[in-house]
Amino acid sequence: GAGVSQSPSNKVTEKGKDVELRCDPISGHTALYWYRQSLGQGLEFLIYFQGNSAPDKSGLPSDRFSAERTGGSVSTLTIQRTQQEDSAVYLCASSLVWGTSLNTEAFFGQGTRLTVV
Amino acid sequence: AQTVTQSQPEMSVQEAETVTLSCTYDTSENNYYLFWYKQPPSRQMILVIRQEAYKQQNATENRFSVNFQKAAKSFSLKISDSQLGDTAMYFCAFMKHERYGGATNKLIFGTGTLLAVQP
Question: Is any Cβ of chain A less than 8 angstroms from the Cβ of B52?
């Protein structure tokens, strides 16, 4: 597609339920990032994919959070047993990562607003 | 660890006026990039301007320019001739740039400045 696509746009879930958030990166972008934006905060890095592997998972806040990427394309972020503090906007970005300086630009999706009630 | 600080939570400017948003950062790295991203109500982050740390010349993009002071670790954004469409949250971001396979090259963001352009 023309840009990074995320679904759903908004998700309301009950505390304790599992949720899956989807990201479709720009075609050909090998790098994919997940960030979390809590109210009044900047974006917080969660996980980085290069192709289908995740060499950096250092930002995942707990073992309730996991992510996978298949076919070097679509990624799914899963949050198990959701808690109220998980409420945030989850943003996905893709880029060509490295090479010339022109490849440092990260292209973002519009995010998924998750509300845990 | 790198940190990015934006000390102005909110700012307001009259249409057609000039406004400057502040950003400071802390790093021991020498090879890095700095960015300003705009986030309108649609939530999508849009790259406004980028600066390579090894370049002394300040980056400019039409009405947007930066004042990059490497020694002071300061990276401010100037918006000239402000327009109503500039109303948004603005984030300053740092990226340590490593050119090897597996390098994360993740962005580290400040907490943002909410800019309101008044008619």
Answer: yes
